[in-house]
Amino acid sequence: MPEEAVATDLDQRIEDVVDADADLRPIAEALAARRDSILEAWLRIAREQPFHQDKPDAAVADHIPTVLDSIIAILWASERASAVVAPMDDPTVAAAAADHARVRFEQGLGPVAVVTEFRLLRHEISRALIDSVEDAPAADILAGQAVIDDALDGAAAIGLSALSQRIETLREEFLATTLHDVRQPITLVTGSLDLAARWLAEPEPDHARLADVIDSAVLAVGEINTMLDTLGDATRVAMGAIDLQTEPTTFESIIEEALALLDPESRRRVTFAPPAGPRLVGVWDPNLLRRVVINLVSNALKYSPEDGPVRIELARDGGMARLQVRDHGMGLESSELRMVFERFVRADRARAQGIPGLGLGLYACRGIVSAHEGTIELTSDGPSLGTIAEVCLPLVDDDGEG
What we know:
Layout: H1 3-17, H2 25-33, H3 35-47, H4 50-53, H5 64-78, H6 91-106, H7 111-132, H8 138-200, H9 207-238, E1 247-250, H10 251-260, H11 264-269, E2 270-272, E3 281-284, H12 286-302, E4 310-317, E5 320-327, H13 336-339, H14 348-352, H15 361-371, E6 375-379, E7 388-394
Parallel strand pairs: 2-4
Antiparallel strand pairs: 1-3, 4-5, 5-7, 6-7
Helix pairs in contact: 1-8, 2-5, 3-7, 5-6, 6-8, 7-8, 8-9, 9-15, 10-12, 12-15
């Protein structure tokens, strides 16, 4: 719904519901006095919601304090209900609602989470209002509550509108990026098959030469499939729609299956020695985690010298399985270590050297690992000094529980 329509609708609702002579200043004063406790209660309850349980530190207030302060300011400035301007006419409320929704979207949360957070804020404001103004006339409390409800209903509506616009933009970005980056391997496939067809038409085809060109086509098809898997994973992460198909599985088998998908030359460069002792078992989605391993190993190979080795290390660290993928390649600046987990972000030197990539792989990996209640990070001593990608995932304990 357009913002103008939201504002008009809310203005009419206030006129229909409240007493025009209701005094709103005591309501504003009571809420201002309890501002900090309202925000603390909201943050505590928000962190308990299912969409924040795997990463409670992400449940920061963001723009919620601005929304609350703006509502208090509207109540205070209006003095009487007859002077209330539709809350969503206030640009501060509208901007804060939209910005909060966009922040949550970038964290991988969806519309339900955004609406729930605004509803939780309304609940905490209402509770504070009831506790603080017991002696106020019922008409004043009703008027104040109507303004609060409409402001937060409108905030939720604008937040959803902002989400819708961001999703549409994201789809366009995904499409443009995919068309650009998939075109190169498709061209290679087409060229390889054209060559194969031409050589097959020769009186005495060179089978070794044919095998080489067909192998090139097969590798290019594998690269396309990897790109499409990455794009699909990144889309689900962005939409907050990672659907885990979990089962008890070992980390060793996930790694071994991922390595089996590499071409022979790449496989030759990778070393992996499973750790001694019992295998590391978790309740994970093996397909998604296999793509995480493939992505990390492919990055290590891609950003290393042509014959640069890549080492995979796996170990138990308390109740966690710790995977490290080490290379001796391009390395990263300290400022790049966190940025590369963002969508469409790639190291400047990778772009300058024309190394292909969507800028989505690490973003998708982070979303998949987070959905498994794990962590992922990169470390590097600097440019040309290699990179270590580390993933930690919860293991099944001795009682068979994660």
